[in-house]
Amino acid sequence: MSFWSSETLRDRALRERLIEPFQEARVKSAAYELSVGAEVFRTSTEPAVKTMLVPGAQFEIPPGQLALLITEEVIRIPPDAIGFISIRAGIKFRGLVNVSGFHVDPGFHGRLKFTVYNAGSRSVVVARGTPIFLLWFSSLNQPTADLHKGDHSGQMEITAEDVMRLSGDTASPADLKLKLDDLRLDYDKRIHALETNQTLARRLLIGLIGAVVVGAAGLIIKESLLPSSQPTVSSGSAVTNPAPASPPPSPPPASLPDAGSPP
């Protein structure tokens, strides 16, 4: 397998009508520069329908969005070759990348469709007729009878099925960041509400415990100030107070000695 040189590409493309319309100035570094065609579909478009472009008309591919582009040129891959496709570096540096196929089968005939994704942070503006795609031809070791027989053979336009296949929300990095920010904000609100509820619960619990302690202390103090209770007797018996104990007898007074008696 060998890639065609610029000379081979010019010669065979003209003789075999491999690229129509063909411009020799588009042959550069062994590749042919294909241009944007008359139709485009973008996932950012509402409603989800393709847009028809007049020559030179511009369109925008926002960040994080997909677009389906079709070439202005009709391509024919001969049985002894295979095609390889890409996007020019200048467009890639702006963030636009090809996310569809990267080769073209032998025997394919029709316009090429490119599904591109804007991975950059800014919109990419493209105009109809701008050469942004690259096509290389590479020779097989011999012509093959196993030619392209897929659904894309003979394609000339962006179909309704193409649009439906690509329609829907596209999770761009910018959209994901917004969703993450919303989730973080909602999480913070929930945590704040939970902390507030816990604070109120703690305050109520402390107040309840305080009320119980104060009530218990009041009961204890009240009981300590009440007079002692009288002894309880059985029914029919009289209550008698014990008689006070009689004081012990006083000792007899000592006798005084008589006058004139010896001591």
TrEMBL record:
Keywords, in A-Z order: Hydrolase, Membrane, Nucleotide metabolism, Transmembrane, Transmembrane helix
Pfam families named among the record's database cross-references: DCD
Annotated Gene3D superfamilies: 2.70.40.10
GO molecular function, one term: dCTP deaminase activity
SUPFAM superfamilies linked: dUTPase-like (SSF51283)
Compositional bias per record (Polar residues), positions renumbered to this chain: 228-240
Biological processes per GO annotation: dUTP biosynthetic process
Transmembrane annotation, as ranges: 204-221
Comp. bias regions, Pro residues: 244-263
Source organism, top-level taxon: Bacteria
Ranges for region Disordered: 228-263
Entries under PANTHER family matching the protein: DCTP DEAMINASE
Name this protein carries in UniProt: dCTP deaminase
Organism: Stigmatella aurantiaca
